[in-house]
Write a structure and sequence with these properties.
Length: about 240
C-alpha cells in the first residue's frame, strides 16, 4: 500500500498544462506550482509532496502570492498527511485547511457491473460548454479547448434523455489514471447517477491500462466509491496561511 501511495503522491505533483490552456505552471524552489485564473484558494497551489527545503518553500510561496487570483493569500500548499505538521510548514504559519483522502481502485468487478439508471447515456462532451453546463461555468479555465484536445485528458458527460446531467474527467499522469470533476446537477442527485458516472470514469480509466486508477474524495463519499471497488491508501492535505 505504501508503494501505491508513493506513486500517487508523485502523480499528484505533476502540474503540466496542455499547450494553450489558461494558467501558469512552474517548478519553483524544487516544488511544482500551478495557478489557474479562478478566484479560489485551491486554484493556485504548490505540490510539496515530499518535505521541502525551507528556502525552496519560501520561493514557492512568493510565486503563489504573485499568481493568486483572489488576493495574495488565496493559495494553498498541498502535501501528504504524514508531512502536514512538519516545522517547515508551521514556521511559515501554514495550517491544514482541507483533507483529501486518496482512494485507489482495487477490484474492477464492481465498476464494470455497476447499475445504470434508465435513460442515462455516457459519452464524450460535444463541446466545453456542454461539460461546463454540469461542472460550472466558473470552472471554464479547467475545461478549455486545449484540455478537450489533449490526448491524456478524457472527458465524459452523462445525459439523461439527451440532457447533460453529470460529468467526470480521467487524466493520464505518470502511468496512472486520475479521476476528477465528478459532478451531478443538483436536481438529479440521489438517483444513482453519481455512481453511474463514477463507474463509467473508472471503466474509461481501466481501458488505458494504467498502473493505478485513483481519485480524491471526502469521507462522506467513501461508501459510494467503496461499492465501486475503491479503497483509501493515503490522505493529501491542503495548507493555507493562518
Amino acid at each position: 500500500m505504501t508503494d501505491v501511495a508513493d506513486l500517487l503522491a508523485r502523480a499528484a505533483a505533476v502540474v503540466e498544462l496542455p499547450s494553450g490552456a489558461p494558467g501558469s505552471a512552474a517548478v519553483v524552489g524544487g516544488i511544482p506550482c500551478v495557478s489557474y485564473p479562478i478566484d479560489q484558494p485551491w486554484a493556485t497551489q504548490a505540490k510539496a509532496m515530499v518535505p521541502p527545503r525551507p528556502a525552496g518553500l519560501d520561493q514557492a510561496i512568493d510565486w503563489l502570492s504573485g499568481h493568486a487570483h483572489g488576493g495574495p493569500d488565496q493559495w494553498v500548499v498541498t502535501t501528504r498527511e504524514r508531512y502536514a505538521r512538519l516545522g517547515v510548514f508551521g514556521e511559515r504559519r501554514l495550517a491544514p485547511w482541507l483533507e483529501l483522502p486518496v482512494l485507489v481502485l482495487g477490484s474492477a468487478a464492481q465498476a464494470r457491473t455497476a447499475a445504470h439508471p434508465a435513460g442515462l447515456t455516457v459519452g464524450t462532451p460535444a463541446s466545453a460548454e456542454e461539460f461546463l453546463a454540469v461542472y460550472g461555468a466558473e470552472l471554464a479555465p479547467l475545461v478549455s479547448p486545449a484540455v478537450l484536445a489533449a490526448p491524456d485528458h478524457h472527458l465524459l458527460v452523462g445525459r439523461l434523455d439527451g440532457v447533460p446531467v453529470a460529468c467526470a474527467q480521467v487524466r493520464e499522469v505518470v502511468g496512472t489514471a486520475y479521476i476528477s470533476a465528478v459532478t451531478v446537477v443538483p436536481e438529479c442527485r440521489g438517483r444513482g447517477i453519481g455512481r453511474a458516472i463514477s463507474a463509467a470514469a473508472a471503466r474509461c480509466a481501466l481501458g488505458l491500462e494504467p498502473r493505478a486508477v485513483w481519485l480524491c474524495a471526502v469521507a462522506s463519499l467513501h461508501g459510494l466509491y467503496g461499492a465501486l471497488g475503491f479503497r483509501a491508501v493515503d490522505v493529501h492535505v491542503q495548507l493555507r496561511p493562518n
